[in-house]
Amino acid sequence: MIGLRLTFPWGRYYAHPWGLNPARLREAEWPPSPWRLLRALAAGWFRAHRGQPTGQDLLDLLKVLGSELPDIQIGRVTFSKTIHWQPNFGETNTGKKEERESRLAHGVYKKTRHENHFAATGDPVVFRYELAGLPQDRVVLMRDTLSDILPHVSYFGRAESLSYLELFPEDAAMPAEGWCRACMASGQPTRRIAEDCRDLFCPDPATFQPQFLWQRTGALVGPADAPPHLIEDLLAHQPLPDGARWVSYQMPDGWPGKWIVRTAQRLNPRRRPAHRVARHLRFSLECRIPVLLKFTVPLAEQFRRRALFNYGKARESFALHGPYREVAAPEDVRGDHQHAFYLPLGADAAHPELLNELHVWSEYGFTREEVEALMRVGSLHWGGGGGRYPIRPVLLEVSSSWPAHGPLAAWKKPARVWQSRTPFVPPRYFYRGNLHGAKLKKNDSPENQLAQCLHKAHVLASGEIRRLTPNLVPQQSLPPQAAWDIVRAPGEEDDSAQNGIAVVAHLPPHSSAPTEKDRRIGFLFQIRFDSPVSMPYPAFGHSAHFGLGLFVPAAPSAHDQLPISSL
Fold first, then answer.
1. Cβ(540)–Cβ(549) below 8 Å
2. Which element (helix H / strand E) includes 141?
């Protein structure tokens, strides 16, 4: 048996079903088709062996895999799309002469709408080939060939679908559920129309040959000429490649309700509040330009405002509102900070200064109505580019527990060293205006306020707090200086603002100036405990529920620091 695990680091899979006009497309191909897998393997081999003739190892591999329809394991998925408008200069130059001249003179062009469909998923896809009756030495050779090919497969489907394709470990247990299997009739693959079946483009086990992946039968030419491109040849002669066919796949039990996360269209005000169904939602932040980490609070605030609008102005929700609207806590709430945290984060370890995900988490939990309100958040407008380049949240995951993967996966695990992911802003008044002449009590220093926050959260282990210097380049998950507005201290005699970062903090709705931004000074810290501890909640300090004061496990670093404070 051979298993191939396909992972999408961006959580998105772009692919049109074979031969379907994009204008008629309603959703992306799902699951990924076996024919597309074989094409990716062939492309990976040619990429690894540039300029070389087709190797026998590749032909043997494709022949064996193309003679079997694999089982495909999937996770939960959301079907979504992005919309863009293409200038249509041909249409602009039509109509009456006066209208054409007016449009051209003012630079007004007609536009054509395009929809970019994709499947959003946070789980890997596994292709399983049983290879029944194949000698073990052949299987070993196939695994060696795959090990040579797979590092060169960098995308799957369209080029936007960045992916990792790897061999499933031989000693690892295959997933127990989520399997899609080919529909068979009288021992032959068949097509079936049913709600729990989906058509996939597959190799025909009876007629498939490896060269059919890149050329048609009879398309061979003399040595002086190059064969025509497969797609061009198909457009001129026939719609399907040789050795290929459509096959219906039986989807997993519970399809589609259990496996498809659908965005709610509207709320039913007559529906009774349901029990709490989730604690964590993960969104991908789709934007055409990079979003810096310093926009953490504005994004989180706007996302929350949109969710509250969807939930209804006249309705109250402890999980969504929290204490900011003086909503009374339910009787079963135990402890502080049980309402929602809105945490914009970067999932790419190579670029920790950029935001591309948003996690919403509440220890208390969300009802179905609250989850629907969060799922229906549309575009977010941010900074100076928010109007021209809005952010579109795309739901990737809904779960009742803390995520097992992603930037926050390690938060629940005990660790000795915890490091700032975003600046900690002292909760009590600290340098919101002019730094010159400001005085600060010793007990109100940022280090002491952080220690007090930890003690209040019942983190009682002893240790030390080190203030970190922002980096000029990314290092040990600490964002570079370019991601923050660095504060310049007024003098050397007072180091309370040394290495400070000016951040936009949350401005409560009852503020006297709700239209202004509340800018405060935050700091990056490293906490070294004497024994491993786990944090009761992900962030501390002012605006903790909007992404500031987030701590993650880290290894001890050699950053410059001011004197150490003890816990």
1. yes
2. helix 136-149
| Inter-residue contact 252 to 123 (CB < 8 Å) | no
Report H helices in 364-483: 368-375, 446-456
Cα separation, 549 vs 503, whole angstroms? 11
Class of residue 555 by CB neighbours under 10 A (exposed 0-12, middle 13-18, buried 19+): exposed
Res. 440 pLDDT band, cuts 50 70 90: low
Query: Distance of CA 376 to CAs 312, 373, 394, 395, Å?
Result: 12, 5, 10, 9
CA distance 361 to 402: 8
Pair 542, 520: CB distance under 8 Å: yes
Q: Are 276 and 366 in contact (CB under 8 A)?
A: yes
Q: Quick count: other Cβ atoms within 10 Å of Cβ 559?
A: 18
* Predicted confidence band of residue 69 (pLDDT cuts 50, 70, 90): very high
- Rounded to 5 degrees, what are φ and ψ at 73? -100, 130
Nearest residue to 31 (alpha-carbon basis) of 253, 284, 251, 191: 251
Closest CA to 198 of 80, 35, 33: 33
Q: Please give the class, per CATH, of domain 276-399.
A: alpha beta
Q: Sort strands 276-286 and 291-292 into parallel, antiparallel or unpaired.
A: unpaired
DSSP character string of 60-111? HHHHHHHTS--EEE---BEEEEEEEEEEEHHHHT-S-HHHHHHHHHTT--EE
**Is pLDDT of 439 > 90?**
no
Identify residue 225 by its one-letter amino acid code. D
Cα Dmax for the chain: 88
Cα distance between residue 203 and residue 533, in whole Å: 53
CA–CA separation, 290 and 355 (whole Å): 7
- Of 414, 428, 501, 521, nearest in space to 463 by CA: 414
Buried/exposed 218-247: b ≥16 CB within 10 Å, e otherwise: eeeeeeeeeeeebeebbeeeeeebbbbbbb
Which residue is associated with the tokens 């994004």? 299
Cβ neighbours around 206 below 10 Å, total: 10
- For residue range 147-183, list pLDDT tens digits in order: 999 999 988 988 888 888 999 988 888 988 999 999 9
Q: What are phi and psi of 92, to 5 degrees?
A: -65, -30
- Whether omega before 239 lies within 30 degrees of 0, making that bond cis, reads no
Measured at the CA of 436, the angle between CA 431 and CA 441, to 5 degrees, comes to: 50
